[in-house]
Design a protein that fits this description.
By secondary structure, this protein is of the alpha/beta class. It contains eleven helices and ten strands. The protein starts with a strand and ends with a helix. The chain binds adenosine-5'-triphosphate (ATP) and magnesium ion (MG). Magnesium ion (MG) is lined by residues 45-46, 174, 205.
Length: 287
């Protein structure tokens, strides 16, 4: 499809030990979407993300990135496609003993031969770019600090800045807020939102239903490697989340107490509450 930036065609992944990571998953992601993947631990969310930049090889099917098959690509073409797909992780993956500046510049390695990048022979334009991307995540004042002197939220924003050095069309985010408190999670998600507003397509795995509903334009649910639902956020219901999390629908679930601050609220009201109070309990009891 012309406006699809990612096409996932009948993709399956079986790990070497026989574990099935993905089963016949097909979906298209349009340019500019903010796609959130939800599902239980082990559902295949990371497997799917890692397939998109070929950190994981898939077993069958094909993935097309902006019109080019990353599945079939080799050598220079593969490197070129990979540059357009940046990724951030739950644990930030920064070189902690290095400066913020070096960490951010390392996001540019895909544009250099290994000799020049090993010795930090960055161009003037890239040094300027590194300051510019840090400014975009509001951390320019940390430019010369060591990465491990930063808070978790700041480290994740450095990781976003590093990813931006690739000038990506797509940003993959694997549980980007899982190590962060609710308030800091909002800041990091807001940064992703700003990038999305600038035209970068986002694909993120999230455990928080409230964050998924707040930021996604579209949500897909995975269970046991299979696509369970795929809907624009406005159409996602409580029953959709129940279906991927294997929960009993609330109408027959009498075990939930009414003490939860969001009990009896609509999804929109619950998100509002969760956002106002940065209350993790509120997130959990949204649905
Ligand atoms: N390298 C691997 N080798 C073998 N099996 C793996 C490997 N990585 C993941 N798996 C298995 O594949 C399945 C999907 O794992 P995946 O990491 O994609 O789940 P996930 O949805 O990201 O879970 P979580 O929410 O815990 O991160 C799980 O059963 C997992 O044990
Ligand atoms: Mg995972």
């Amino acid at each position: 499809m012309a406006d699809s930036i990612i096409e996932i065609n009948d993709v399956s992944k079986v790990y070497d030990n026989g574990v099935v990571g993905l089963q016949n998953v097909s979906l298209n992601v349009k340019k500019g979407e903010f796609l959130v993947i939800v599902g239980l631990s082990g559902a295949g969310k990371s497997t799917l993300l890692r397939a998109l930049n070929r950190l994981n090889e898939i077993t069958s099917g094909e993935i097309i990135i902006d019109g080019e098959s990353i599945t079939k690509a080799k050598g220079k073409k593969l490197r070129e496609i990979r540059r357009s797909v940046a990724m951030i992780f739950q644990n930030f993956n920064l070189v902690k003993r290095s400066s913020v500046r070096r960490n951010v510049l390392s996001g540019r390695v895909g544009y250099y031969d290994s000799f020049r990048s090993t010795f930090g022979m960055w161009s003037k334009a890239d040094k300027e770019r590194s300051a510019e991307v840090l400014r975009r995540v509001n951390l320019l004042e940390k430019y010369y600090d060591r990465a491990d002197a930063l808070s978790g939220g700041q480290q994740q924003r450095v990781a976003i800045a590093r990813a931006l050095m690739q000038e990506p069309k797509i940003m993959l985010a694997d549980e980007p807020t899982a190590s962060l408190d609710p308030a800091t999670s909002q800041v990091v998600m807001d940064d992703l939102q700003i990038l999305n507003n600038d035209g970068i397509t986002i694909v993120a795995n999230l455990h928080s239903e409230a964050l998924a509903l707040q930021y996604a334009t579209r949500i897909i649910g995975l269970a046991e490697g299979k696509l369970i639902f795929d809907k624009p956020v406005e159409q996602v219901t409580e029953a959709d989340f129940d279906s991927v999390y294997g929960r009993t629908p609330k109408s027959v679930d009498t075990t939930k107490t009414s003490e939860q601050p969001t009990a009896g609220k609509t999804v929109e009201q619950a998100i509002e509450l969760a956002t106002e109070k940065n209350d993790e309990d509120a997130e959990v009891s949204v649905l």
